[in-house]
Protein backbone atom coordinates (compact mmCIF):
# COMPACT_ATOMS: atom_id res chain seq x y z
CA UNK A 1 0.00 0.00 0.00
CA UNK A 2 2.82 2.42 0.74
CA UNK A 3 4.35 1.89 -2.70
CA UNK A 4 1.04 2.56 -4.44
CA UNK A 5 0.59 5.90 -2.68
CA UNK A 6 4.22 6.81 -3.27
CA UNK A 7 3.83 6.09 -7.01
CA UNK A 8 0.58 8.06 -7.10
CA UNK A 9 2.07 11.19 -5.50
CA UNK A 10 5.18 10.90 -7.67
CA UNK A 11 2.99 10.74 -10.80
CA UNK A 12 1.06 13.82 -9.63
CA UNK A 13 4.31 15.74 -9.12
CA UNK A 14 5.52 14.72 -12.60
CA UNK A 15 2.22 15.84 -14.16
CA UNK A 16 2.40 19.21 -12.40
CA UNK A 17 5.97 19.72 -13.57
CA UNK A 18 5.08 18.75 -17.16
CA UNK A 19 2.14 21.16 -17.27
CA UNK A 20 4.23 23.98 -15.78
CA UNK A 21 6.98 23.46 -18.35
CA UNK A 22 5.04 22.59 -21.52
CA UNK A 23 1.65 24.23 -21.01
CA UNK A 24 0.68 26.83 -23.60
CA UNK A 25 -1.40 29.86 -22.63
CA UNK A 26 -4.98 29.38 -23.90
CA UNK A 27 -6.97 32.04 -22.09
CA UNK A 28 -6.26 35.14 -20.02
CA UNK A 29 -8.36 37.90 -18.50
CA UNK A 30 -8.14 40.46 -15.75
CA UNK A 31 -10.80 42.02 -13.61
CA UNK A 32 -10.00 45.30 -11.88
CA UNK A 33 -12.04 46.98 -9.22
CA UNK A 34 -11.44 49.79 -6.75
CA UNK A 35 -9.62 47.55 -4.25
CA UNK A 36 -7.41 45.41 -6.48
CA UNK A 37 -7.14 43.03 -9.41
CA UNK A 38 -7.99 39.40 -10.19
CA UNK A 39 -5.95 37.71 -12.93
CA UNK A 40 -6.99 34.42 -14.55
CA UNK A 41 -4.81 32.33 -16.88
CA UNK A 42 -5.42 28.89 -18.36
CA UNK A 43 -2.60 26.73 -19.75
CA UNK A 44 -2.95 23.45 -21.65
CA UNK A 45 -0.74 20.61 -22.84
CA UNK A 46 -3.59 19.11 -24.86
CA UNK A 47 -4.58 16.43 -22.34
CA UNK A 48 -4.02 18.34 -19.11
CA UNK A 49 -4.73 21.91 -18.03
CA UNK A 50 -3.65 24.35 -15.37
CA UNK A 51 -5.91 27.17 -14.25
CA UNK A 52 -4.17 29.96 -12.36
CA UNK A 53 -6.03 32.64 -10.40
CA UNK A 54 -4.23 35.52 -8.69
CA UNK A 55 -5.94 37.88 -6.29
CA UNK A 56 -3.93 41.07 -5.68
CA UNK A 57 -5.64 43.33 -3.19
CA UNK A 58 -2.85 45.34 -1.57
CA UNK A 59 -2.29 44.65 2.10
CA UNK A 60 -5.47 42.59 2.50
CA UNK A 61 -4.94 39.72 0.09
CA UNK A 62 -2.23 38.41 -2.24
CA UNK A 63 -3.19 34.84 -3.16
CA UNK A 64 -2.07 32.57 -6.02
CA UNK A 65 -4.22 29.46 -6.69
CA UNK A 66 -3.39 26.74 -9.24
CA UNK A 67 -5.77 23.96 -10.27
CA UNK A 68 -4.41 21.03 -12.30
CA UNK A 69 -6.84 18.78 -14.18
CA UNK A 70 -6.82 16.05 -16.79
CA UNK A 71 -10.25 16.63 -18.34
CA UNK A 72 -12.16 14.45 -15.92
CA UNK A 73 -10.60 15.22 -12.58
CA UNK A 74 -8.93 18.05 -10.69
CA UNK A 75 -5.91 16.13 -9.42
CA UNK A 76 -4.07 18.92 -7.60
CA UNK A 77 -4.68 22.32 -6.06
CA UNK A 78 -1.81 24.52 -4.89
CA UNK A 79 -2.52 27.70 -2.93
CA UNK A 80 0.06 30.21 -1.76
CA UNK A 81 0.01 33.77 -0.50
CA UNK A 82 -1.43 35.79 2.32
CA UNK A 83 -4.92 36.68 3.44
CA UNK A 84 -6.10 38.77 6.39
CA UNK A 85 -8.11 36.97 9.04
CA UNK A 86 -10.62 39.26 10.69
CA UNK A 87 -11.72 38.17 14.13
CA UNK A 88 -14.67 39.73 15.90
CA UNK A 89 -15.01 39.06 19.59
CA UNK A 90 -18.47 38.01 20.68
CA UNK A 91 -19.53 39.76 23.87
Task: Summarize this structure as a short list of keywords or feature phrases.
91 residues, alpha+beta, five-stranded antiparallel beta sheet
Describe what this molecule looks like in 3D.
- It is a single chain.
- The chain is α+β, with helices and mostly antiparallel strands.
- It contains one helix and five strands; from the N terminus they run H-E-E-E-E-E.
- It has one helix spanning 2-22, and strands at residues 24-32, 37-44, 49-57, 61-69, 74-83.
- It has a five-stranded antiparallel beta sheet, with helices on one face.
- The longest helix is centred in the first third of the chain and has 21 residues, at 2-22.
- The chain is flat, with a radius of gyration of 17 Å.
Write the layout of secondary structure elements.
Elements: H1 2-22, E1 24-32, E2 37-44, E3 49-57, E4 61-69, E5 74-83
Antiparallel strand pairs: 1-2, 2-3, 3-4, 4-5
In short:
By secondary structure, the protein is of the alpha+beta class. Helices cover 23% and strands 49% of the residues. It is flat and about 50 Å long.
Q: Tell me the number of strands.
A: 5
* Fraction of helical residues: 10-25%
Question: Helical segment tally?
Answer: 1
Name the strands of the widest sheet in spatial order: 1-2-3-4-5
From the spread of the alpha carbons, the general shape counts as flat
What is the straight-line distance between the termini?
A: 50 Å
- Mean pLDDT across all residues, rounded? 89
What is the rounded Rg? 17 Å
Order of helix and strand elements from N to C terminus = HEEEEE
User: What does the main sheet amount to?
Assistant: 5 strands, antiparallel
- The amount of beta strand, in percent, is over 45%
**Assembly state of the chains shown:** single chain
Structural class: alpha+beta
| Unreliable spans | none
Amino acid sequence: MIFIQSDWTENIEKSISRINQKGKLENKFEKKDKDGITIFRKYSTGKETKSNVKYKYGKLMDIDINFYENGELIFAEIISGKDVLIYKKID
